[in-house]
Specification:
Blueprint lengths: L2 H16 L3 H20 L6 H14 L10 H21 L12 H4 L11 H10 L4 H12 L4 H8 L3 H22 L2 H17 L3
Helix pairs in contact: 1-2, 2-3, 2-4, 3-4, 4-8, 6-9, 6-10, 7-9, 8-9, 9-10
């Protein structure tokens, strides 16, 4: 299905859901649940499903916020980011003036994530990723793992595309540094190889 057709179909389902069609809401939820769950589960220890629910409910209640010039998936990530930051601010009682975008997942959590992959090199990669500032973390995650385009990431994070490309460059450099700090010996070589493969798979 072409991107435009998928967006149109998503919007048809969303409009039907807003009009009271619960079946349309269920189909829309099922279509995008896995991606939304991955987004939250990589960042919070508990409550990922609740955050997914909140994201979809926001779609229903905030119809005017959706712009036809972006995909529905991009719109979902924009809302998901907002729900995530709201949750961090509430749970951490973040003082006014502290920008949680610049804090890392590791700083906002007290124990390692249980979602990490079994392979040591992928474990190290994800551990390094969650030590990046959140703005860099999300840019890398959406571009490399969820395969959004740079322009879609910009829409989702509500920043210029040039900012996204800058965050990707800075994020990958920091990610490599964290891998070197966290890994040793063979695990370091494997982790760096995984990172190189990821970078070759998608160019900015």
């Amino acid at each position: 299905m072409a991107a435009g057709e998928e967006t149109e179909h998503d919007m048809e389902l969303l409009n039907a859901w807003r009009s009271g069609d619960e079946g349309a809401g269920k189909r829309l939820f099922e279509r995008h649940f896995d991606a939304m769950y991955r987004f939250f589960r990589s960042k919070v220890e508990r409550g990922a499903e609740d955050l997914v629910q909140q994201t979809f409910l926001s779609c229903v209640h905030n119809k005017a916020q959706f712009r036809a010039d972006c995909s529905f998936r991009t719109y979902l990530y924009r809302i998901a980011r907002s729900r995530l930051l709201d949750g961090f601010r509430k749970s951490q009682r973040t003082p006014e003036g502290v920008n949680v975008d610049e804090m890392s997942i590791a700083e906002m959590r007290t124990s390692p994530s249980s979602w990490l992959a079994n392979k040591e090199e992928r474990r190290a990669l994800h551990q390094a990723l969650e030590r990046l500032p959140l703005d860099l973390h999300m840019a890398i995650e959406l571009f490399y793992f969820e395969e959004l385009s740079a322009s879609e990431v910009a829409e989702a994070l509500e920043v210029p595309e040039g900012t996204v490309r800058s965050r990707l460059r800075r994020g990958l450099a920091k990610l490599r540094s964290e891998l070197e700090r966290l890994s040793e010996g063979q695990h370091l070589e494997q982790s760096l190889a995984t990172l190189e493969k990821l970078m070759r798979a998608r160019t900015t």
